[in-house]
């Protein structure tokens, strides 16, 4: 995460102060301390985000440096290596004014963190504690102290997260837009990317800007306050699976106390009590996502669901998917989105595999807002199906699509794999046809991909070369070999693809009135 | 993302045109040697992942592996991003929770019910509810005291319904209970809001369960709910609370004008009216069904009574007339029905019966031809009756108007013919007979049967008598013979004239000028010799011609006009009212009438 690694990422350049180091004991540990933690047989630096006492023993919620937040976890004190020095949280004085202000605030409001001798047998995290009670400045301070970069809510204009590093593609000064101008200077692109990487982060989103941006559309947030939260659910049970959530999701605060939250497979309603869940299952008659089936093949079905008409179901879906999507925001309601849900059929009903949401009208031409394969179905090739389906829809719409940014790490890999596959396929096909010429835009048109995405994929695969003073597309041995390997695998395991002719879908039409009245 | 620098480029490349087709090559077909350092690097590409997360360890590992693979490195090591567990749960009685209830329809599913429609009562019993319900059904109340009411057993569904009622009405009546710590609602207060949607059982159990609900009730709803803000209270505390989600987006403001307001008001009024109407309809349907129900009940009662009467009769050995007993039970049904339908008597019923009898079973099939014949006969009959009617109308009716009915047009066979004005001693081809349509166009003009006569002042006078009308114009071989015995559209090639009697016995001498024969068939490139000749005939517009006719008819007949020029399609026909030009023409008229008389 940017905030936690800013000092490495050149966030402050040479001004960056070395964090104060020293030995710590269990008693002196506090939130924000970075210590070495035993993780999978090795020691990794980790930051303490929260502390509580469980069954009379102190436990710590830690985030590992350079690991995704989904690997954050509660650990017992034994796994902390206190024989090594720990890094204390950065002192208040800092290189930027904003930071100073924020930190000062958190310092002023700082309260001693209770670490030991908790009376309660099982204390909930400070976080959920503060949520249960009415919010006070104290609680805010605790939070801001916890991540020490949390923008204060009372900071007025200064209320911006100073160390956020957000640079979505559109905001790159140097990134040319091939849609506007078909001439792209590849060197410039690369240099710009490099420059952007090297440049100090400078594009923080203020809370206000962020909310305004979300209000007019979009489902992904880059706001630190929204994404740096302690996970609140311990485990969920869904169908035959038990799943560990990855991130915070605003399920009812009561569930923070539950060991297991039950989620109905069909209506996605949530229950903290097995009796309640059992009673609910006796009454629930839903057997599939509550919408129209628009695609069916031997393996999967797709349902289209309107966020406005199926508000409860879509909210439930969003709550569930927020457990696994870090940047997803639930700040605003689901009305402006359509949800395309992929299911698997059994005699019990249609089991949700994954879904993607899509803005009814995307100003930026996104064809996917959020996309998720539920963890119990991951690594089975379903992600690729979802992605393919989203492009099939774009083909029918006659538009070029691209997923909303930021992508998650898994999202990036999924998309890159899909892009690579389809682009290599098209190129090989074109080569076999005997007319081995194709422009980047033509490729994009054939695949309903934006020119930018095609370009990036080609570059990334080292397939766009410069030869004899001309740009050429090279079907590299590596790419072809990879595709062959994949084909081999498909032959063995069976190939899953979306068959466009089975798709019974027309782009939904929305009236101007719908647009005005919140969809 | 790779942190390798992109320095080391020597040649500045041309810009890439994304519209321009690029060659697709295999690696071995590349001409250039592959030594350029820059070509060995994977360029840095925008990933779309947030910068802070791009540097994450596992993602970098995968990306680096992919880059290496793209550059041709052989590596079998699969790198992946680790994720928390998602495992098969142990000891889940899946079949219990999810029965095999799904059967796949052959067509794609279409579905629009909401979650609320599908989950029944939203309240679900918890562990403590189950305990209490057991206690209740054992005959004890919340405090373990024996129940005083006389209710038997409370089902789980009823219990949930009651609890749900409490929860819903309390949240409705005290929406801010969790904020201002309002006292828990009294049972009486909530009972007021009970309506038909609640079952009868639920009504009965309100009281015993209420005590339990009060005990359990806290500031939050019993079923955990997410925090949703319906109203957009953009307060700071609200914003900061991560548990508040799914806020309403503010409605885009539409411009307000007075006209728009009025429009909206109209729309709302109309909507309201329509809804009222719909409500009225539904109400009436309900009423009707209610009446139907009553009717059925009464019928049943009547039947029961009759049955009883029969029993009595049997018991008392009363023997009625033959069939009376049957009537008593069975036959009664149609009778009131008939009465209700037809007050006039039994005639329709009789007819119905007979027609049923007429249709012998073997003759049931209706043939199309029969139907057609029937329809034909009907039509014929109608026509006949219409005729009759008209006859009846016309009976004893004398038309007092002067020449009331336009006489039939002159028969086509014998219109007044044109005779050559000059005797065709020259080799002029003779004109064909005039077009009958010319006459028929002047419908207001009465044409008497008139054989054409020759102008008397010409030298051809003597010849006229010899002229058989048909033959006058027929010089064989003069021009192609038309199959049509009266080639009507041939233009005259020689001047011609005719005498025609118009309305009121007026005599018209009509003349047609001579015309070069060649001009006639020339069609488009007509070198017409006369100024007043038109290439095409444009029908005078109806109004105009009417005016002329009116004008002509109002003028005093004897002296009114000096010459009436008719607008004629060919334009070369000047028709003069000879009667108006003094004694000479009168003489002509007389002569003509004498001619016709002879």
Describe the protein's architecture and organization.
Chain A has 519 residues and is α+β, with helices and mostly antiparallel strands. Chain A is built from 15 helices and 22 strands. A five-stranded antiparallel sheet of chain A has the order 5-4-3-2-6, with no helix packed on it. A five-stranded antiparallel sheet of chain A has the order 13-14-15-16-18, with helices on both faces. In chain A, helix 3 runs antiparallel to helix 4 and helix 11 crosses helix 13. The radius of gyration of chain A is 25 Å and the shape is globular. The N terminus of chain A is likely disordered. By secondary structure, chain B is mostly helical. Chain B is 41% helix and 6% strand. Chain B has 21 helices and nine strands. In chain B, helix 6 crosses helix 9. The longest helix of chain B is centred in the middle third of the chain and has 59 residues. The relative contact order of chain B is 0.03. At the A-B interface, helix 1, strand 8, helix 5, helix 6 and strand 10 of A face strand 1, strand 2, helix 1, helix 2 and strand 3 of B. Chain A: Pfam families: MOZ_SAS (PF01853), Tudor-knot (PF11717), zf-MYST (PF17772). Chain A: This is Histone acetyltransferase ESA1. Chain A: Belongs to the MYST (SAS/MOZ) family.
């Amino acid at each position: 995460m940017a905030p936690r690694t800013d000092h490495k990422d050149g966030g402050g350049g040479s001004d960056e102060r070395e964090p104060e180091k020293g030995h710590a004991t269990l008693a002196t540990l506090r939130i924000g301390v970075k210590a070495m933690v035993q993780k999978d047989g090795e020691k990794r630096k980790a930051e303490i985000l929260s502390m509580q006492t469980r069954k009379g023993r102190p436990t710590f919620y830690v985030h590992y440096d350079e690991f995704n937040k989904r690997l954050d976890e509660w650990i017992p004190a034994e796994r902390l290596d206190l024989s090594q020095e720990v890094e204390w949280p950065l002192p208040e004085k800092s290189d930027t004014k904003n930071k100073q202000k924020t930190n000062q605030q958190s310092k002023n409001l700082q309260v001693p963190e209770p670490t030991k001798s908790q009376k309660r047998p099982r204390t909930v995290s400070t976080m959920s504690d503060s949520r249960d009670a009415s919010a006070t400045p104290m609680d805010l301070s605790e939070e801001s102290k916890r991540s020490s970069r949390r923008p204060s809510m009372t900071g007025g204009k200064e209320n911006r997260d100073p160390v956020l590093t957000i640079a979505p593609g559109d905001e790159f000064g140097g990134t040319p837009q091939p849609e506007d101008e078909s001439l792209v200077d590849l060197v410039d692109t690369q240099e710009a990317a490099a420059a952007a990487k090297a440049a100090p982060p400078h594009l923080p989103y203020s809370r206000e800007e962020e909310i305004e941006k979300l209000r007019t559309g979009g489902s992904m947030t880059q706001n630190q306050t929204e994404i740096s939260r302690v996970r609140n659910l311990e485990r969920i049970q869904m169908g035959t699976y038990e799943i560990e959530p990855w991130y915070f999701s605003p399920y009812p605060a009561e569930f923070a106390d539950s060991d297991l939250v039950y989620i109905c497979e069909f209506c996605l309603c949530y229950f903290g009590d097995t009796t309640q869940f059992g009673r609910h299952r006796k009454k629930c008659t839903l057997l599939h996502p509550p919408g129209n089936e628009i695609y069916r093949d031997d393996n999967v079905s797709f349902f289209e669901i309107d966020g406005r008409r199926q508000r409860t179901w879509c909210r439930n879906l969003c709550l569930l998917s927020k457990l696994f999507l870090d940047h997803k925001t639930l700040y605003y309601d689901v009305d402006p989105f359509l949800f395309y849900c992929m299911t698997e059929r059994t005699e019990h009903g249609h089991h949700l595999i994954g879904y993607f949401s899509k803005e009814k009208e995307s100003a930026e031409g996104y064809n996917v807002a959020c996309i998720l394969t539920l963890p119990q179905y991951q690594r089975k090739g379903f992600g690729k199906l979802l992605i393919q389906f989203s492009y099939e829809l774009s083909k029918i719409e006659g538009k070029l699509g691209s997923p909303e940014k930021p992508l998650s790490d898994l999202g990036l890999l999924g998309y890159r794999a899909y892009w690579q596959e389809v682009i290599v396929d098209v190129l090989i096909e074109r080569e076999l046809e005997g007319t081995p010429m194709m422009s980047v835009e033509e490729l994009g048109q054939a695949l309903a991909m934006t020119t930018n995405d095609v370009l990036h994929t080609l570059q990334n695969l080292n397939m766009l070369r410069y030869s004899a003073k001309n740009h050429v597309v090279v079907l590299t041995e590596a790419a072809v070999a990879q595709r062959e390997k994949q084909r081999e695998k498909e032959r063995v395991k069976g190939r899953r693809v979306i068959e466009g002719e089975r798709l019974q879908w027309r782009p939904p039409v929305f009236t101007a009135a719908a647009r005005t009245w919140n969809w | 993302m790779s942190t390798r620098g992109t320095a080391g480029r020597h040649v500045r490349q041309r810009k890439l045109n994304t519209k321009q087709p690029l060659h697709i090559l295999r690696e071995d077909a590349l001409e250039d040697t592959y030594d350029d350092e820059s070509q060995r690097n994977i360029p840095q590409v925008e990933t779309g992942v947030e910068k802070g997360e791009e540097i994450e360890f596992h993602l970098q590992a995968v990306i680096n592996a992919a880059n290496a693979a793209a550059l041709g490195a052989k590596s079998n090591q699969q790198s992946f991003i680790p994720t928390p567990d998602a495992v098969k749960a142990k000891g889940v009685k899946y079949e219990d929770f999810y029965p095999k209830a799904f059967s796949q329809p052959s067509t794609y599913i279409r579905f629009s019910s909401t979650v609320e429609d599908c989950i029944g009562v939203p309240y679900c019993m918890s562990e403590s509810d189950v305990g209490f319900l057991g206690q209740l059904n054992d005959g004890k109340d919340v405090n373990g005291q024996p129940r005083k009411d006389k209710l038997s057993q409370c089902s789980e569904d009823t219990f949930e319904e009651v609890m749900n009622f409490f929860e819903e009405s309390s949240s409705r009546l005290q929406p801010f209970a969790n904020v201002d710590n309002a006292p828990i609602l009294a049972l009486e207060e909530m009972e007021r809001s009970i309506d038909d949607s609640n079952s009868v059982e639920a009504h009965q159990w309100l009281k015993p369960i209420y005590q339990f609900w009060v005990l359990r009730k806290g500031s939050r709803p019993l079923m955990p709910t997410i925090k949703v803000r319906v109203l957009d209270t953009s307060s700071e505390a609200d914003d900061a609370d991560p548990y508040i989600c799914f806020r309403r987006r503010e409605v885009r403001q539409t411009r307000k004008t007075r006209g728009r307001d009025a429009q909206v008001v109209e729309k709302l009024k109309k909507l309201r009216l329509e809804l009222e109407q719909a409500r009225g309809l539904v109400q009436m349907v309900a009423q009707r069904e209610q009446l139907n129900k009553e009717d059925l009940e009464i019928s049943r009662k009547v039947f029961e009574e009759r049955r009883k009467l029969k029993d009595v009769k049997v018991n008392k050995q009363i023997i009625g007339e033959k069939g009376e007993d049957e009537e008593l039970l069975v036959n009664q049904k149609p009778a009131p029905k008939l009465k209700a339908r037809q007050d006039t008597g039994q005639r329709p019923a009789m007819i119905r019966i007979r027609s049923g009898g007429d249709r012998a079973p073997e003759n049931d099939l209706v043939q199309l031809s029969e139907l057609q014949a029937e329809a034909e006969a009907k039509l014929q009959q109608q026509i006949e009756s219409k005729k009759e009617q008209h006859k009846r109308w016309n009976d004893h009716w004398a038309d007092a108007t002067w020449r009331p009915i336009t006489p039939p047009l002159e028969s086509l066979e014998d219109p007044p013919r044109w005779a050559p004005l000059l005797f065709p001693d020259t080799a002029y081809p003779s004109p064909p007979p005039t077009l009958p349509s010319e006459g028929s166009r002047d419908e207001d003009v009465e044409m008497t049967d008139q054989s054409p006569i020759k102008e008397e002042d010409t030298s051809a006078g003597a010849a006229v008598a010899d002229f058989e009308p048909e033959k006058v114009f027929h010089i064989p071989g003069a021009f192609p013979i038309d199959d049509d015995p009266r080639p009507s559209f041939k233009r005259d090639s020689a001047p011609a004239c005719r005498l025609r009697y118009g309305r009121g016995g007026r005599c018209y001498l009509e003349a047609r000028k001579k015309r070069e024969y060649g001009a006639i068939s020339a069609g488009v490139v007509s070198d017409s010799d006369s100024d007043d000749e038109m290439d095409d005939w444009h029908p005078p517009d109806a109004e105009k011609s009417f005016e002329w006719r009116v004008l002509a008819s109002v003028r005093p007949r004897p002296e009114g006009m000096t010459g009436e020029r008719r607008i004629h399609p060919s334009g070369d026909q000047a028709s003069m009212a000879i009667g108006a030009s003094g004694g000479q023409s009168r003489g002509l008229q007389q002569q003509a009438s004498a001619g016709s008389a002879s």
